[in-house]
């Protein structure tokens, strides 16, 4: 059952990342074409995070199957946690930026709000997959970790 949940989460993470990438790009494009101000850094960050997520999803799904010896469970956990942190900081920063705007109406503002909400949903999906992976690691141990070298467990023999 865990694998089915992870596959569903990966699909949702991928679709949400692509959607978030498009939405944040639309707002950044508006800033580039119609605003004298540069696009907010929080929005730029929420353009980077989905791109990183797409690459992460590809790695998280292919590396354990293609390169099991070179894929350590803690590295996978670190990638999951990094995505979680990226989306947490991104949606909070964008929400704070939007809350501080004096005038925020129209379709651009609605798209920016949708980007923040979608980033919050992505944070939820990444924290869920991170928890599932941490649970799996604690339950199964570090499979794929190197075995001790032969003779390393035995006491040294007399010289």
Automatic annotation (TrEMBL):
Matches recorded under Pfam families: MARVEL
Transmembrane regions listed in the UniProt entry: 7-31, 43-62, 74-98, 110-134
GO CC annotation: membrane
InterPro entries xref list: Marvel
Membrane topology: Multi-pass membrane protein
Swiss-Prot/TrEMBL keywords: Membrane, Transmembrane, Transmembrane helix
Subcellular location: Membrane
PANTHER family named among the record's database cross-references: MARVEL DOMAIN, MARVEL DOMAIN-CONTAINING PROTEIN
This protein's name: MARVEL domain-containing protein
Species: Clonostachys byssicola
């Amino acid at each position: 059952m865990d694998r089915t949940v992870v596959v569903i989460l990966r699909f949702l993470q991928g679709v949400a990342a692509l959607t978030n990438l498009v939405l944040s790009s639309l707002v950044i494009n508006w800033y580039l074409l119609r605003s004298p101000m540069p696009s907010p850094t929080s929005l730029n960050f929420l353009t980077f995070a989905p791109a990183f997520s797409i690459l992460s999803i590809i790695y998280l799904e292919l590396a354990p199957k293609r390169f099991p010896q070179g894929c350590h469970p803690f590295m996978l956990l670190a990638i999951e946690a990094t995505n979680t942190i990226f989306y947490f900081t991104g949606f909070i920063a964008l929400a704070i930026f939007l809350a501080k705007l004096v005038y925020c109406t129209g379709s651009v503002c609605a798209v920016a709000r949708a980007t923040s909400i979608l980033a919050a949903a992505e944070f939820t999906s990444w924290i869920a997959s991170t928890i599932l992976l941490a649970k799996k690691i604690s339950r199964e141990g570090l499979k794929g970790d190197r075995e001790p070298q032969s003779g390393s467990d035995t006491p040294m023999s007399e010289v």
